[in-house]
Design goal:
Layout: H1 50-68, H2 76-83, H3 87-98, E1 106-113, E2 116-122
Antiparallel strand pairs: 1-2
Helix pairs in contact: 1-2, 1-3, 2-3
């Protein structure tokens, strides 16, 4: 028994060593793949890492846009439930959809009381979720 834990050291299973597999240099990394579709927006932020975050954020903004493009009023919670994304991410993507590089859509907000807001998007005429090429 050890004095610190009062348990036998043999009570703890040791994690097996992971097998080292050589990396094929001709194999393309998941992170080197372009995002789905022709979406080419520039995300940013203090902790943003393109290789780590781009595919996830592209998926989020597309799901949020697809959910709200019909112009119906929804809460952030309703959008989050429909898309499967966290409410904070939905809120951030609604803000992004206002920006020119994300389509410059009209994101309306209506106060319902007690801190509850409803949102809807009127897609910009002649635009989709796709940003300007050099925006």
């Amino acid at each position: 028994m050890t004095r610190k834990t009062g348990m036998d050291e043999m009570d703890f299973e040791q994690e097996p060593k992971r097998k080292q597999v050589p990396v094929d240099p001709s194999q393309v990394s998941l992170f080197d793949q372009p995002p789905p579709g022709d979406f080419d927006a520039r995300f940013d932020g203090d902790d943003y890492d393109d290789r780590r975050d781009r595919a996830r954020l592209v998926g989020q903004i597309k799901r949020v846009f697809d959910c709200v493009k019909d112009g119906q009023w929804r809460t952030v919670q309703q959008i989050a439930e429909a898309t499967g994304d966290p409410e904070t991410s939905v809120s951030a993507q609604l803000r992004n959809l206002r920006k020119d590089r994300f389509g410059g859509h009209n994101v309306e907000k209506r106060h319902e009381g007690n801190g509850l807001y409803l949102y809807r998007i009127t897609p910009k005429a002649g635009s989709s979720i796709h940003p300007k090429e050099n925006g």
